[in-house]
Every structure is written in C-alpha cells, then in structure tokens.
Specification:
Number of domains: 1
Number of helices: 2
Structural class: mainly alpha
CATH architecture: Up-down Bundle
Largest sheet: none
Strand content: under 5%
CATH topology: F1FO ATP Synthase
CATH superfamily: F1F0 ATP synthase subunit C
C-alpha cells in the first residue's frame, strides 16, 4: 500500500478523533467548574481561572494535532 493512500485515509480520521476528544474534555472541564461554582460560589474567581487555564491547554493540544495534520498533508 502506498504511503500517500494511508495518509489520505488516516489524517482526516485522526483529526476527527482529536476534535471529538477535545470536545469531550472541554465539556467535562466546564461541567466540573460549574459544579464546583455551585458548591462554593465564593471561590468562583479561582475556579474560573483554573478552568480557563485547563481549557487553554486542551485547545493547545488540539491545535498541535491540527498543525501536525497539515504538515503531514504536505507529504501527500
């Protein structure tokens, strides 16, 4: 099997799995932050900052996967 054919099939699939995983992780992070804020409203500022830092790291991993996918698409 040719390398270009393998990359043509696996790159979109890998990017879709990455996007799905990122959406699940972001949903869980925001749900946990909302749950924590409802339990301790006085700590909402700290919870929000930590949630935003976590969401930024999750999004960064997703963007790294996207850039990696584009680099590999140049090999096709």
């Amino acid at each position: 099997m040719n390398v270009q054919i393998v990359l043509g099939f696996t790159l979109p699939l890998g990017l879709a799995i990455t996007a799905f995983g990122s959406a699940i992780a972001l949903g869980k992070a925001v749900a946990a932050a909302m749950d924590a804020t409802s339990r301790q409203p006085e700590a909402s500022g700290k919870i929000l900052v930590n949630m935003m830092a976590g969401c930024a790291l999750i999004e960064a991993l997703t963007l790294y996967a996207l850039v990696f996918g584009f680099v590999l698409m140049g090999k096709i």
